[in-house]
Design goal:
Helix content: 10-25%
Strand content: 15-25%
Radius of gyration: 22 Å
Number of strands: 14
Shape: elongated
Number of helices: 7
Order of helices and strands: EHEHEHEHEEHEEHEHEEEEE
Strand order of the largest sheet: 3-2-1-4-5-7-8
């Protein structure tokens, strides 16, 4: 069985290593060339991984794979099973149809499918305060996350989680789903359950300008935005004059210690540089932050009440 893996991120490398350790090393890795990395979020060059697991690496002409060069090159590889993890583009129908056994990807959301198709699912799940996430493996088709489901697992979103820990949980759960698919495919036993399209929802993409903080919102909502945009993202941001402060780590400060002031006001600054800001209902303790200018937190300084361009909450 000739397995191919398409991906461009560190989560792809995790999958490749696990496949190799289970005797299912791929014959081919589809990975964009390093010179195209600036346009790919979280890009990683998988050449070293390919050499380690004994796989050929193919560098596509186009990220969309919609070129005659890519079509000819990949069809002649004779792929049986395609696993897509960390690719961030739809796979064209000709590639799906050329795989003898099939092509599979993963998707998920805090609500069960067919809800939560689309983009930024981990960010939205944290931002909107969910405590669970459903990850499913599905047969690829030319639609968006709508193929037959072949496996589903659920994991926690804990109060201490941020977007990075969700990516790590995604690695573990998705890789287990892919291993199940590869093992079943070797026996000709992969079976899918059709998704209903009725009731499907689609989450919108989040752009960097959508990471601005509104101090007019409750403190928990501010903290959840920070968790949702923690590293590897640059962080939620707030403006003070010409300075833009990116906050990578924050938490609710206290429900009993009261401060007076307007939302967005820095009401306490500690010797280690941590500071406290008032939101609409409580205070937020800022633990980690970066700024390009010479801004220093000072008591009674005011952040803009709203920074950036906010998005309406989607229907999940």
């Amino acid at each position: 069985m000739r397995i191919a893996v398409a991906g461009n991120q560190w989560i792809t490398r995790y999958l490749l290593d696990e496949l190799g350790s289970h005797g299912l090393a791929p014959a081919l890795i589809v990975n964009m060339p390093p010179e195209r990395s600036s346009a790919i979020s979280g890009y990683i060059d998988l050449a070293e991984t390919a050499a380690r697991v004994g796989a050929e690496i193919y560098r596509p002409d186009k990220y969309s794979l919609k070129s005659q060069v890519d079509q000819a090159a990949l069809q002649e590889r004779g792929i049986d099973l395609l696993l897509v993890f960390g690719w961030q583009r739809l796979i064209p129908g000709w590639f799906i149809n050329s795989c003898r056994i099939g092509a599979y990807g993963v998707h998920g959301g805090p609500e069960l499918p067919p809800r939560c198709r689309g983009r930024a699912v981990f960010n939205w799940a944290i931002l909107l305060g969910y405590d669970r996430f459903h990850m499913y493996a599905f047969e690829l088709n030319e639609g968006v996350d709508e193929g037959n489901i072949v496996g589903l697992e659920t994991f926690d979103i804990l109060p201490e989680d941020d977007v990075l820990t969700l990516y790590h949980k995604n690695c573990v759960v998705s890789t287990r789903l892919f291993l199940d698919i590869a093992s079943a495919a070797a026996k000709g036993e992969v079976r899918g359950t059709p998704q209903a399209n009725e009731g499907a929802t689609y989450l919108p993409k989040r752009a960097p300008e959508n990471g601005g903080i509104s101090w007019a919102q409750p403190a928990k909502r501010v903290v959840d935005l920070v968790r949702a945009l923690a590293p590897p993202y640059p962080g939620a941001f707030t403006d003070c004059g010409d300075a833009r402060i990116f906050i990578q780590r924050a938490q609710l400060f206290d429900t009993r210690i009261a401060y007076e002031g307007e939302p967005g006001t820095i009401v306490d600054v500690f010797p280690n540089g941590h500071f406290v800001v008032i939101a609409s209902d409580a205070s937020v303790y800022v633990r980690e932050w970066t700024v390009a200018s010479n801004f220093r937190p000072q008591k009674n300084a005011r952040f803009d009440l709203i920074s950036g361009v906010s998005l309406p909450d989607p229907v999940m």
